[in-house]
């Protein structure tokens, strides 16, 4: 092999260094011959990873690290026994001679691996290591999120974190351009086997885009081993309907170049079974009701591909390129049966509605990233250029038949067809500077510009008479343009006991929306400032305290603004709101950790113009309800989280989480006034892993969510439990997993909704009880190297585009 790869893993403390020094030496086998491709990990005496190196062909290695009093080194290789050195004074690390020992026959092959806990707490975030979760086997990204600590999913697929709405969901740091059901359907197409970890970031700093009250970042797997390597996965699951998936990732890495690519296919047939009762009143007098049974079946077929290259041009310059493509196809088969009451508990008539849709979604994105190292202290400049394009086609056929109680047709059926064509393009560029001032201070600064244009044309035709008639009351052609210019600056200080960060981000936004059918135009621009602050205190090695403050904005997603109608039945449709305003959130949080095994966070958050999804009666027609988004006056949140990983025995590890919050909502919708309406909520979750002999392991998980009042909805308690079993084979290169989720089929939503002159009762079930068997095989070399991680310039924008489902 050519000259080995030298990798410096920069941990956060390293960012504050003023000058780095070199650790050098040679590593040999028992015959004193140099060993190539040995991995050497350099740690400080408190076990903090400082750097990492890969030995050359002749066994020589070198690593640049921060000067500390003493270090120790861990060395690994596929053919020799792993070992650790004694603690070495830093002055004795410039000419090291290290030696491996041969493995004994009794030991067999030593596998270099580090077992991560399923859930980790890191500063400002909680990390869910998906590969360590047996219950995630064969599931989708959406199903993994549903079971993540502090995450809640509403009956309309809206995601919240610790009670906060307006969550930005990212894939590898790139925000996804969709929300609600569209986002859920997109995530249902991503297999869990493609996911490395999920980061739940409750309080992002000024360096992040200001969009979103919090961020959920899904990190996909990327092979970091030297040479040519790959991973192949296949799975099959069975609930009410089948789910299957397969994927492969390939990676080739040498000293200068890394080439990687992956392809995943997922087929998941699911359903959404909604049973509800809608009752209409006028001044407390009963005026009618619908008793409805809605059943949607939707096979989801998803193809996703990724290709990228990293070039280490020289010690100071690196260039990267990555392209992603994804297609989603849905054939949704829906049927609604409704009993109509005009007197209390007396059925007067019925209507049956079929709602069939064929949807296709295509999206592609490309990112070009350049990095230049300014000095040996770690100062650097990075630049990104991004382009993303999204296309969607949606063909609807809506057929409603009306009958008396004997089943005889009482009028001609109403037939409505719709054709939606949508296009969206995102252009973005950004530049970031990381400047180290001295051993304790550094600055981060950056600028960004983005331009978005969305063009959606929806045409409805009334075909009830057999002749298509263009329906101007339902059709629309909506064009949306948005320009954002942003800049940020943060100052960071890291001392022995105290640390702090002060930052601010300024963003100017100009938006213009045009409705072609009515020739109405909305044109507005505004500038907003987003300050952030962080203060940390370490009184000892066991205790850590921190305080954070920030202001965030959540702009409406593009589909939330589009004034288009999507019908479920003659009495219900979904529609965007072009007058929806952005919401802003102020958050103050306190955190405490003890020995990195107990983590406690508590805070308060206030959201103005809170964006809330409602299903409410129309003012002009009280017997028709619309699902849309509105701005409430405000929402106030008080929350606390406790995470306690416990190593009960050597073979039993238990990760336990308690999330509690009180959310209060104020505003007025459909003649209904809210004044601090809400409730306290408690979410309990536990994940227990039992490590057995002969590479067997078992997992049991459970979660309980107390009843909750969410604005106009009174949601009943939810709980679920599942198990998983894993067996490693083929010298740990192959893994067989079995998982059974929601064993007792209790993970579904039941709720009551109350407005003035309107009440609704519903429960909605999905295909959540699934048994899945999967097999994963890793091939190629096992030597590990570092890989570049970076966000792109379009991260916040992609979280607001509708790209799949409906």
Short synopsis of the structure:
The protein contains three helices and 47 strands.
Q: Mean pLDDT, nearest integer?
A: 82
Radius of gyration: 28 Å
The count of β-strands is: 47
Q: Bin the strand percentage.
A: over 45%
How is the secondary structure organized here?
Layout: E1 21-28, E2 39-44, E3 49-54, E4 60-65, E5 70-77, E6 80-84, E7 88-89, E8 96-99, E9 119-122, E10 125-129, H1 141-146, E11 151-153, E12 159-161, E13 167-171, E14 174-175, H2 180-188, E15 195-201, E16 214-220, E17 227-238, E18 242-253, E19 257-282, E20 285-312, E21 317-343, E22 346-373, E23 380-403, E24 409-436, E25 441-462, E26 469-470, E27 476-494, E28 498-515, E29 520-537, E30 543-554, H3 558-561, E31 565-569, E32 572-575, E33 583-594, E34 598-608, E35 611-617, E36 625-631, E37 634-649, E38 652-669, E39 672-691, E40 696-705, E41 708-710, E42 713-715, E43 718-729, E44 734-740, E45 749-755, E46 758-766, E47 771-780
Parallel strand pairs: 1-8, 13-16, 32-36
Antiparallel strand pairs: 1-4, 2-3, 2-5, 5-6, 5-7, 9-10, 10-15, 11-12, 13-14, 15-16, 17-18, 17-47, 18-19, 19-20, 19-46, 20-21, 21-22, 22-23, 23-24, 24-25, 25-26, 25-27, 27-28, 28-29, 29-30, 30-33, 31-32, 33-34, 34-37, 35-36, 37-38, 38-39, 39-40, 40-43, 41-42, 42-45, 43-44, 44-47, 45-46
Written account of the structure:
The longest helix is centred in the first third of the chain and has 9 residues, at 180-188. The protein has a 22-stranded antiparallel barrel. Strands 9-10-15-16-13-14 form a six-stranded mixed sheet, with no helix packed on it. The chain has 806 residues and is mainly beta. 2% of the residues lie in helices and 64% in strands.
């Amino acid at each position: 092999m050519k000259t080995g790869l030298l990798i410096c893993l920069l941990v956060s403390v390293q960012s504050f260094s003023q000058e780095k020094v070199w650790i050098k030496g040679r590593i040999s086998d028992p015959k004193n011959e140099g060993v190539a491709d040995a991995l050497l990990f350099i740690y400080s005496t408190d076990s903090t990873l400082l750097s990492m190196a890969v030995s050359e062909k002749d066994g020589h290695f070198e690593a640049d690290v921060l000067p500390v009093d003493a270090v120790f080194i861990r060395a690994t290789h596929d053919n020799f026994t792993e070992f650790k050195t004694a603690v070495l004074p830093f002055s004795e690390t410039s000419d090291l001679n290290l030696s491996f020992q041969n493995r004994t026959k009794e030991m067999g092959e030593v596998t270099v691996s580090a077992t991560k806990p399923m859930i980790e707490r890191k500063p400002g975030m909680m990390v869910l290591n998906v590969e360590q979760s047996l219950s995630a086997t064969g599931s989708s990204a959406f199903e993994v999120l549903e079971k993540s600590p502090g995450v809640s999913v509403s009956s309309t697929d809206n995601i919240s974190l610790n009670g906060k709405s307006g969550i930005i969901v990212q894939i590898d740091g790139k925000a996804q351009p969709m929300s609600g059901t569209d986002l859920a359907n997109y995530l249902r197409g991503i297999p869990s086997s493609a996911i490395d970890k999920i980061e739940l970031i409750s309080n992002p700093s000024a360096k992040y885009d200001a969009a979103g009250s919090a961020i959920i970042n899904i990190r996909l797997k990327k092979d970091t081993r030297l040479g040519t390597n790959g991973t192949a996965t296949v799975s099959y699951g069975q609930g009410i309907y089948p789910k299957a998936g397969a994927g492969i990732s390939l990676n080739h890495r040498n000293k200068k170049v890394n080439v990687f690519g992956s392809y995943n296919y997922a087929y998941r047939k699911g359903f959404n079974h909604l049973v509800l009762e809608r009752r209409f009143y006028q001044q407390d007098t009963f005026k009618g009701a619908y008793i409805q049974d809605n059943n949607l079946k939707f096979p989801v077929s998803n193809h996703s591909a990724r290709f990228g290259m990293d070039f280490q041009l020289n010690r100071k310059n690196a260039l990267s390129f990555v392209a992603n493509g994804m297609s989603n196809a849905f054939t949704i088969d829906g049927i609604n049966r409704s009993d109509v009451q005009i007197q209390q508990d007396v059925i007067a008539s019925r209507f049956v509605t079929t709602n069939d849709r064929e949807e296709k979604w295509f999206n592609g994105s490309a990112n070009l990233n350049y990095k230049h190292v300014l000095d040996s202290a770690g100062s650097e400049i990075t630049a990104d250029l991004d382009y993303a394009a999204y296309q969607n086609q949606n063909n609807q056929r809506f057929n409603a038949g009306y009958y008396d109680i004997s089943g005889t047709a009482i009028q001609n059926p109403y037939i409505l067809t719709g054709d939606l064509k949508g296009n969206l393009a995102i252009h973005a560029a950004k530049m970031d500077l990381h400047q180290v001032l001295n051993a304790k201070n550094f600055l981060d600064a950056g600028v960004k510009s983005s331009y978005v244009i969305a063009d959606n044309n929806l045409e409805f035709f009334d075909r009830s008479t057999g002749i298509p008639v263009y329906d101007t009351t339902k059709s629309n052609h909506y064009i949306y343009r948005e320009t954002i210019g942003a800049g940020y600056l943060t100052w960071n200080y890291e001392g022995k006991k105290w640390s702090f960060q002060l930052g601010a981000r300024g963003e100017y936004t100009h938006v213009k929306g045009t409705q072609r059918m009515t020739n109405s135009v909305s044109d507005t621009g505004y500038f907003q400032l987003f300050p952030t602050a962080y203060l940390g205190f370490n009184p000892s090695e066991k205790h850590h305290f921190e305080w954070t403050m920030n202001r965030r904005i959540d702009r409406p997603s593009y589909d939330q603004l589009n004034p288009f109608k999507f019908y479920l039945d003659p009495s219900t449709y979904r529609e965007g709101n072009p007058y929806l305003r952005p919401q802003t959130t102020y958050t103050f949080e306190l955190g405490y950790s003890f020995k990195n095994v107990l983590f406690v966070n508590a805070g308060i958050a206030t959201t103005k113009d809170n964006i809330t999804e409602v299903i409410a009666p129309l003012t002009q027609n009280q017997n028709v309800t619309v699902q849309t988004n509105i701005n409430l006056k405000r929402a106030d949140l008080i929350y606390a989280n406790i995470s306690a990983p416990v190593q009960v025995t050597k073979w039993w590890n238990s990760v336990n989480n308690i999330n509690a919050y009180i959310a209060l909502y104020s505003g007025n919708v459909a003649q209904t006034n809210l004044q601090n309406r809400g409730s306290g909520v408690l979410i309990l979750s536990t994940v227990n892993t039992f490590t057995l002999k002969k590479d067997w392991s078992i997992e049991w998980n459970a979660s309980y969510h107390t009843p909750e009042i969410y604005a106009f909805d009174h949601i009943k308690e939810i709980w679920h439990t599942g198990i998983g079993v894993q067996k490693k084979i083929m010298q740990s290169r192959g893994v067989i997993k079995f998982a059974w989720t929601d064993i007792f089929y209790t993970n579904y939503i039941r709720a009551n909704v109350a407005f003035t002159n309107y009440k609704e009762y519903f429960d909605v079930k999905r295909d959540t009880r699934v048994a899945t068997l999967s097999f994963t095989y890793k091939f190629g070399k096992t030597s590990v190297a570092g890989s570049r991680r970076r966000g792109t310039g379009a991260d916040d924008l992609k979280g607001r585009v509708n790209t799949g489902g409906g």
